[in-house]
Amino acid sequence: MARKLKSDKVLFTATLLLVCASVVMVYSASAVVAMERYHNPYLWLFKQATWALLGIALVPVMMRIDYRTYRQPAVIWAALAFVAAGLLLVLFGREINGAKRWIGILGLGGQPSELAKLATVFFIAALLERRMDRIDDVGYALLPIGIVVGLLVGLILLQPDLGTAVTVLLIAGAMVFAAGINYRYIAGLLLVSLPALYIVMMSADYRRRRVMSFLNPWDDPLGNGFQIIQSLIAVGTGGVFGRGLMAGVQKLFYLPEPHTDFIYAVIAEELGLAGATVILACFGVIAWRGLRTAMRAPDRFGAFLAIGLTTMVSAQAFVNISVVLGLLPTKGIPLPFVSYGGSSLLINLLAMGILLNVSQHASTPHVITTALEPGIADAS
Q1: Residue 210: pLDDT above 50?
Q2: Which end of the chain is more exposed for a tag (fewer CB within 10 A), N or C?
């Protein structure tokens, strides 16, 4: 009798809690601003709830699609071609807040750069499945990854969207690291990337201002340092249990766009350390169960797929929360599942659906200790 497939209920519960928190906190953070600007306090609530319902409805669908489908060359190259076309198309679109990132879909905005994360995971997982035994062979394994990732990152930077570009690089780095790349390559890559990162950061005036405001926001408390100062005030005044839901002050035109990148500050102010810790714990659970799924995956592709998808969510959460707490310069990376943003929410939910499918095929620890060991037979 075939083994009955069971999904990771802990992973699903943590994801669902974050989505529920998103709908509540997006309304709490945006109602007053939406009323002032558009005379509709429910504007962003309705949009976020629509995307949340769509994403939740698609999760069971993704859970039923065998994850091995995504290693088919036709699927991978079609995804990469679609993403590249979308990234080129947005460059000719309407500019919003100094960037060209969105494509209109039935009245709702979508970002092709979000889909680029999934396409990157599919491509690298499929390539490493076949070539990880020669991961230190630059021309054979690393060069194809570098070309594809470099192309996607370059197109994303043209929008410009440094935050998503950094996320794509983090995903690629984590997957290659898991494949067992030699540490000298890592050291060399870091030495090369630091000057490149410096050039990218200093090439745009707004990025230079972000770095300087991060180093000392009090040098310009009413200008470049205003956002991070207001974020720290929100976090600091929340105390242990917060001011209470809907009772936050910093969201009232002090903290710019509180329902997007800085929604964690609103959570900390209104729900306090307790609420912020629950959100952080949910991301910790996703990271734990995602890596657990990778270690128990029945083949290399499943393992790398799980690592890439887990990194995709965890890295964004780490960067976003670090920015809110003043530990990193402002990057414009949303908090997965929680920040307002339909395409980000939808793509992350699709990623969790795929990860849950991998978990259905996971073996017990004593059967497979790690799916990344060279020579392991792929499941058919």
Answers
A1: yes
A2: N
- List, in order, residues 6 or more apart from 309 with CB less than 8 Å away: 121, 290, 351, 352, 354, 355
Does the predicted model carry a pTM greater than 0.85? yes
Distance of CA 219 to the CA centre of its chain: 31
Pull the structure tokens for residue 120: 């990157």
Distances (CA, A) of 177 to 136, 143, 182, 314: 11, 15, 8, 16
For residues 76 and 120, give the distance between their C-alpha atoms in angstroms, rounded to a whole number.
9
List pLDDT tens digits, range 243-299.
988 888 888 888 888 888 899 999 999 999 999 999 999 999 999 999 999 999 999
User: Cα separation of 79 and 85, whole Å?
Assistant: 10
* Cβ contact 59:356 at 8 Å: yes
What sections of the chain are H helices per DSSP?
A: 9-38, 43-64, 73-90, 112-131, 143-157, 162-178, 183-202, 205-215, 226-237, 263-296, 300-324, 342-360
Q: Which two tokens stand for residue 168?
A: 């794509």
Location of structure tokens 């926001």: 217
CA trace torsion 172, 317, 166, 352 (10° rounding): 40
pLDDT digit string, tens, across residues 113-137: 889 999 999 999 999 999 888 888 8
